[in-house]
Design goal:
mainly alpha, 282 residues, globular, 79% helix, single chain, 13 helices
Length: 282
């Protein structure tokens, strides 16, 4: 279920890739797209598909009415923070706001779809397990890398993201940022282990509740509770990494030129305009 909520959030967060004329079409068709993913994951029957369609339409109606204004505020806050050089504290505040948005959406998704778990057959649960495994192959590839290969992979991924926001980096900036990135702790291995353990907890719970399904409280514990067994090992590493990343980003911010800062602010404002457009098209 977390994967489908993530899909919803990706759709909502990447609408800037669409032209203005296509924004409403993409957003309006998001329930259909996610429903097809759920069907592919479980091989739903007709009654289950009707249930999922209604739940996802309700979710996206709520998202448009309740969440887009919050997105607009987050984007405005981020643009203001970036404009004068983002601090570690400002980054952590933005990060917490994004995590809170994800949590709200996942809670809403649980409200809408928890009843589906009571209708799942053992074969459908097995199919979802396989669906998850197939989409986890890229993480297995990462685990099979050497520590040096993982470091290079991470550096290149973060540099690519930075250049998307700030534009092309100069050679000296690139060298300084890479050196700074090498000071960050490794966290991806821990995250992959957490992701696997959370999935296994979800599958095990489904298999122990044939015909009755999982309650909202059970799903919330598995998917969101930082005190769950699978989260306890990961949370300290996640928090340590985010603190280190926030300080790294604050350092990098001081190495950027005015044009690069302006590039990031302008892009953030474009996202904000798109969110406003979506609200106006309600």
């Amino acid at each position: 279920m977390q994967q489908f909520c993530h899909t919803c959030l990706v759709i909502a967060a990447t609408l800037a890739l669409a032209s203005c004329s296509a924004i409403n079409i993409v957003y309006d068709n998001a329930p259909t797209f996610v429903a097809s993913e759920v069907d592919d994951a479980f091989d739903l029957n007709d009654a289950q598909n009707v249930q999922v369609d209604a739940a996802l339409q309700s979710f996206f109606d709520w998202h448009r009415q309740q969440e887009l204004a919050r997105y607009q505020q987050m984007l405005n806050d981020a643009a203001l923070a970036i404009a004068d050089g983002i601090s570690a504290a400002e980054y952590l505040a933005i990060y917490d706001a994004v995590r809170s948005a994800g949590k709200r959406s996942l809670l809403r998704m649980i409200d809408e779809l928890h009843g589906l778990t009571a209708t799942l057959t053992p074969a459908q649960i097995d199919r979802y397990d396989q669906y998850f495994r197939e989409r986890s192959e890229k993480y297995q590839d990462y685990l099979e890398m050497s520590s040096q290969q993982r470091q290079i992979f991470t550096e290149e991924w973060i540099i690519d993201k930075m250049e998307e926001w700030f534009g092309e980096l100069e050679d000296l900036q690139y060298e300084k940022i890479v050196a700074r990135l090498r000071q960050l702790p490794e966290v991806r291995v821990a995250w992959i282990a957490f992701r696997e353990a959370r999935h296994q907890a979800f599958i095990d719970a489904l298999r122990k509740a044939p015909g009755t399904g999982l309650s909202k409280q059970q799903l919330q514990h598995i998917l969101l509770d930082t005190d769950s067994e699978h989260a306890r090992a990961y949370e300290p590493q996640r928090l340590a990494y985010r603190q280190a990343f926030a300080q790294m980003l604050a350092d990098v911010s001081g190495w950027l030129g005015k044009a690069q800062i302006r590039h990031a602010v302008e892009r953030m404002r474009e996202y904000e305009k798109i969110v406003i457009e979506l609200q106006d098209n309600d």
